[in-house]
Amino acid sequence: MGYGIAPKSFEYHGICKSMFCNSMEALNRLKNCTVVLGNLHVLLLEKTRREHFTNVSFPKLKEITGFLVVYRVRGLENLGQLFPNLARIRGAQLLYNYALIVYDMPNLKEIGLYSLLKIDRGGVIIWTVSQACFIDTVDWKSIAPGSRHVLSVDRHAHCYIHCTCSRNALTNHCWNNRKCQRYLEGPEGEKCKSQCLGCRKTNSSDCSVCRHYTFRGQCVSECPNGTVVLPVNEYCLSNDECNKLDGWSWNNTCIFECPLYYVKEKTANGFTCRWCKNCTETCGSQFIRSIETIQAARRCVYINGSLTIHISSIPEIVQELRTFLSVVQEVSDYIVIYGSIAITSLDFLSSLKRIGGRNLQKGKYSLVIYDMRNLQTLFLSNVTENLKVDHGTVNFYGNPMLCASQIEKVQMKFPTQPNEIDVPQGMNGYSGGCKEVSLGLQVRVLNETSALVMFSPIADTDVHYSLLYVKLPQSVHETFVPETCSESEWFAVDVPPVFSQLGMVQLSSLHPASSYAICIETYDPIHRNLARSTILSFKTLVGKPEPPFISELVASSSDVVVIRWVDHKNYRSHISHYELDVNLIDIHSKDILARDHCVNKDESYYEIDFTRHAVVLKPPPSYEKGCESMCGVLSSVTEGAMTEEHFEVCNKYDLECGLETNIRSNKSFGKYVQSLAIDIKGPRNDFQIGGLAPFRDYKFKLRACTEHSCSRSARGAVRTLRKHGADIPSITFIEANLTGYVTVYWKPPLLTNGPILSYTIEVLPSIILNDFNNLLPQVWCISNNTTSLTVKSEKAMKYIIRVCTTTLGSSKSCTGWKKIYVTIKRIPTWWWTGILFGVILYFVSTLVGWLYKNRRNYIDMIPLLDNRLSYGNETEPPSFMLTDLAPIYSIPLRDTHLD
Questions:
Q1: Fibronectin type-III domain: which residues (predicted)?
Q2: Which of 510, 569, 500 is nearest to 541 (CA)?
């Protein structure tokens, strides 16, 4: 691995060009770099020791647009020590198919890049790191999906340290025994704002790197006016910043070279790109054997020489070929393609017009294709039709899936036709069904799950028939045959002997709204010939769609809930609209009164439980993938929300979930939603519902609809957040007397966090009104259906009183303390007047009686006695009494005053 003299580095506003660090001085030039615009080489520091890296760190570096290679750096024990905040390696340029290369590091103990979240392109190679641990404890596939990784794992005794980050084995990965691996999506995905690609757990707005555009260190959804985009990392730059980086502004972008068919031209203000029809780039011979060499040929329109392609197993290689070789129009010599098992078609040469054959391979061939195990088709039909070949012929062998019919289409374009040595018989198409048979295959779709296959059998009654069919993946664009390597499984149905002129086979248990490929194979046991009919495609009927999958149900505030969903893959193109029903899960007052909330208090009932306010589910494989990082909804309100695995009850227990009655209504209580029926026009995957009551449980039913029918309901329930300042009652009347009785009247709160459970009255007999904070009040608790209470407190002349409410969302919300003074009741003055009059009347009556009595005692005359008294019986009452002399008065009862 040889390198020249280190080029001079350049830094401007945190943007650095490619860095070549082969000394500590050169390494320290990274101190102000936020992003390396290109590649970062840290290598050949073979005289450094451990102490040289003490306190050496570059925390500002977050992103590298190319690749990172660390090679032969002695004394460095932890790569994460140098780059603690490196979050993204884009892999715009690769080194031998890899974006992260750590090689020949004798003292390295661990990789430790615990902030690394994403490698956009390219794989990882970690090799010859004899002392390093924690290499296989990192899930590299989640960081760099779809790429090949080469890891050197030396099993040492000190490396047997297990990750303790998660109970889920799929996400239990770590960088060391202190740092767990971070994820962008899935059960452990970071919950960040929508503009972030990774963030701090303590601050969801502090982005590791930006998902879309970066402007002066801030993440934005689009670049502001007056700026241009730096395409390689989507930075928003001013024209001056672009010029400082040796670029120029063109078509709202900052570029360093003009695109194909344009030439750089100087102007008064700098440079621009001018269209040039005949300005095409000519390259020398190209040997394509890695992603790096593919990218090097990205501007080659004319290849002055030969084109050779030999690529080992690289998962993403076909897409790379289509991206970078689609501009090739002419090859002056010859094309050789061999030993590339990932290539199934030559459609990546979509612009090829001429093969010159100026110099021929082995002096004879201008197109050579061999040892291509999975190659099934050659060029696109329009390329084949318009292809011109000046000299040479073709050479095909060792291609088991390439049928002779495909070769015949191409060889007709060559001036020299091949012989049996050039295209050996039996050396191509021997593993596929290359021999075609005409059976008049037809398919009639009967309903959503079944189809009738009809064909015309051949005359030979010894021939056996097999029906092959497969459910096609979504958005499949390539030819699909039984030999194709894919996750889709072909099913075979043995057809009974056919003696009539029309064979029929009915297929059942098909998936609705799905695409299928179908063919019939014939086998002649006498001649041992295998033949296959043409492959037909058909689609089953849509019928009633599958329900959408609610992936997120999140309360974003006290009155707003956000719902997100994904559609079933088979039905997403057929969905026209959605039906959403929202219903309050009310708690009846009888159920509240059934429990004594004054006695049975559970303090944990009022603790914050984020899982009640957010439901996050991982979609099953048959549904579309949920949005990355949960779209940022959860970050601000549901830090503790857990992502759960979906469990389908209907499928598990074979329940009739499709039989449901949906009664839709729009009702409210007060100013809040009690029930709501919404029709949502598709395509759409999220909706926000407002006007909900605080801290109440709402259930959601979502249905996906086609033009003709709707699915069964996807269901979910979530509780809105608490409303601050709610649950406070208002006192309307207070009274206290000398005996210690206190009476309180109050009104219930106008706004509550859920239903009211109970009231609490607190009374504090106050001697010193200004010092009652440290005193414990007397407390009475009553049910929620009472709004007044008279209580017996300690005798005092002054009281401090407040009323508190216990609701579903608050254990205690109180009014302010109210002061009340004891009222001394005064007797009205007319009472005293009446009493005084009565007393005076009593004394006057007594005096008159006394005077009258004295007048009778001093009379001069002695009354005559009745003789009958002397002789009468002493036991008999006298016939005459003094009362007989007094007048008699009577008051009718109706005139008396009884009140």
A1: 728-827
A2: 510
